[in-house]
Amino acid sequence: MIGITVAEIIYYFFEVDNRRIIFYIFDSSVGRMLARKRKFDYWYRLFQTGNEQQLSAIITSSFINIHMVFLFNKNKVLAYDIPKIIRSLKDNLGNK
């Protein structure tokens, strides 16, 4: 099952260093980004351990829409700064 494999990879990724951040960009070029996001969200709900935080962001500019998900350890030292960083990214890229 693909979901179990993805969950194990993510679990190991954070087990090695819980300061790491994963971000996933949903490719909009083939028009399946929302289906992929739903699948990712399903896997997250199914396999979450309770130690991780998930934040979604959409950046819209005049030439592209980017759907992203950030996954990080919620006990991470910078966990409270990550939403601010994402907002800054949205502001900077969205104005282009």
What does this protein structure show overall?
45% of the residues lie in helices and 25% in strands. It contains three helices and three strands; from the N terminus they run αβαββα. It has helices spanning 2-16, 33-47, 82-94, and strands at residues 21-26, 52-60, 65-73. A hairpin with a 4-residue loop joins strand 2 (52-60) and strand 3 (65-73). With 96 residues, it is of the alpha+beta class.
Describe the protein's topology.
Layout: H1 2-16, E1 21-26, H2 33-47, E2 52-60, E3 65-73, H3 82-94
Give the proportion of residues in helices. Answer: 40-55%
Globular, elongated, flat, extended or rod-shaped: what is the shape? flat
Q: Structural class, please?
A: alpha+beta
What string gives the helices and strands in order? HEHEEH
Quick gist of this model?
This protein has three helices and three strands, in the order αβαββα. By secondary structure, the protein is of the alpha+beta class.
Which key terms come to mind for this protein?
96 residues, three-stranded antiparallel sheet
